[in-house]
C-alpha cells in the first residue's frame, strides 16, 4: 500500500524546492530539472489522465495540483506553468504545503499575464531571447490572420521578416537582451491587408515563473 508523505518537499526528491518541469506532446513522462539548461535530473511516468490535465494548460500561466508517485509514495505538488510552444508545456513545481513558494511562482506568472491583458489595446508580441514567440495577443491575430496557438514557439524572424531584416533584428535582439534598454523601431510587417509599417516599443519583462526574459513588441 502506498503511503502519503505529507511532510516531504521536492527537495528530498531533487535537491531543489522549486525544480523546473517539462512535458512534451508525444510522451507522458514528466521531466524535472534543477536548472533550465541542464539535462533532466529525474523523470516520472504520468498516467494518461495526468498528462492530459497538464496539456490543457494554455499560453497563460496557471497552476494545478497533482499527486505524483515518487519511490512508491504519493507526493502532492503544485505545477505552475504554461504551454511554451506547439508541442511542449513547462514551468515550476512546488510541494503542496510549500505555500510561499507556490504563491511566489504563481504571482510572478499571473502578473506577467495581467500585464499583457492590460496592454491588449496594442498589438503585442512577446519573445524570448532567441526570438521565439511566447505570446501573440488578439490584436496581432486580427492584423495577421494567424492564431496564437499556431505561432507559439516559432521564430518571429522567419515568420515576419525578410532574410536581411531578420539578420539586422537578430543583432539588435542580442544587444537588447544584454543591455536591457528599452528602444523603439519601425518594421514593415505582412498583414491581412498587405504590408503595414508598425512602430515597436521594446522592453524587458523579468519573470521567474515560465519566462526568464521576454521582449515586448
From TrEMBL:
Keywords (A to Z) from UniProt: Hydrolase
EC class (word): hydrolase
EC number(s) given by UniProt: 3.1.4.52
GO molecular function, one term: cyclic-guanylate-specific phosphodiesterase activity
Domain PAS positions: 109-160
Alphabetical GO biological process terms: regulation of DNA-templated transcription
Transmembrane segments: none
Highest taxon listed in the record's lineage: Bacteria
InterPro entries per UniProt: PAS, PAS-like_dom_sf, PAS_fold
Protein name per Swiss-Prot or TrEMBL: RNase II stability modulator
Gene assigned in the entry: gmr_2
